[in-house]
Amino acid sequence: MKSILTSALLASTAFSSVVPRAGQKVDYDGFKALRVTLPEGSENLKTQIEDLVAHVLNPGKKELDVVVAPKDIAALKALVIESKVINEDVGAALKEEGEFKAYAVPSESWFTAYHPYADHLQFLRDLQAGYTSNSAIFTLGNSVQGRTLTGIQIWGAGGRGSRPAVIIHGNVHAREWITSMTTEYFAWQLLTKYASDANVKAIVDKFDFYITPIVNPDGFVYTQTNDRLWRKNRQTVSGNTCVGRDINRNWPYKWEVTGGASTNPCSETYKGVAPGDAPENRALSAQVNTLRDSRGIRLYLDIHSYGQYILWPYGYNCNLRPENNAQHQTLAQRAQAAIRAVSGTAYTIGPSCSTLYATTGSSTDYTDVTGNATYSYTYELRDTGTYGFTLPANQIQPTVRETWAGVLSMFKDA
Ligand code: 0X9
Ligand code: ZN
């Protein structure tokens, strides 16, 4: 996401006005992605903009990335100080994302296209079946619509469940498709390189990995059937027609703090009625608590897109730092350098509230404090807005490879 100055007042009022008709998919042909600059102190204006546009992509403060229908472009331009086109035709960009390919057993070619949800599950099963002595499929609980949150556990020479945990979550936000591909690439690398690469072996022998590539399966499926730019889960709200809680605003830590999430069910950052009242959050926090109480959590990674950031706690307060802030920074700097060395891709690093914007009830604050994780990071993968969430298929491999270099350096250092 785009860097902004301080708190995320805007995050509390980001609406999505695109509602597909039953059985129909939203058609984004001719829609533009714009980066608009707002005047200072323009809360009313923000609300107007959010009502006008189809999606707010980044709930920031001074600048906003939005997707807008052709008929609303002139009205939007009249409201803002400045606007820059970041994508001329969102519909055309969706086509560049690439077609789904027929499923093939895990090989590097998996990372050349995006895939349907059922194929993601099959990928995990097939990968696991190739490495039965040091991996297992696990489940964490069910989504709102009853899909099982499914992951893969990977261990090394110490045996199953004997080492500190590394927890990795992907596709928390439904539209961030590159993040499931990337977390699957981590699992694929750890298993396929274990026997041949001494660096990978050392890491797999040191930790127990718990990788869940799609922690928001209902939202993910909805992006494939109805609205490619859907973000939240698919939970209804009593007495309201708007759908979805933001899973990264629903974790039961500092959920009640204001300014980093929305209390409006129509907002992209709706926090829910009570802390942890999304079933996906209950499943995820139970995983964190269980591993905290057994092996302890060495590293937590929440993989998002877009913006090219590595962020660490805290989200709920811009002045607060974890007690091991300096170590968080050192590991992030090394990961940032490792990513740049692969491809030149530039990442921004820093504590999340002061670097990006305020978030309450977010994953990394929970894992840091309640989960007692030694390290907690949010990655925001490619790009910085050109394609945004709809990163073309020909950028999957470059993205997963550079990100692997970043996380590998973290695994070594953690
Ligand atoms: O707003 C979010 O949840 C994340 N950005 S995204 O565009 N992928 O939605 C950023 C979260 C960073 N903050 C914390 N993890 N605290
Ligand atoms: Zn996200």
TrEMBL record:
InterPro entries: CARBOXYPEPT_ZN_1 (IPR057246), Peptidase_M14 (IPR000834). One of its GO terms (molecular function) is zinc ion binding. Coiled coil: none annotated. It is found in: Secreted. Residues 1-16 form the signal peptide. The active site is at E380 (proton donor/acceptor). Its main location: secreted. Extracellular metalloprotease that contributes to pathogenicity. This is Peptidase M14 domain-containing protein. It comes from Ophiobolus disseminans.
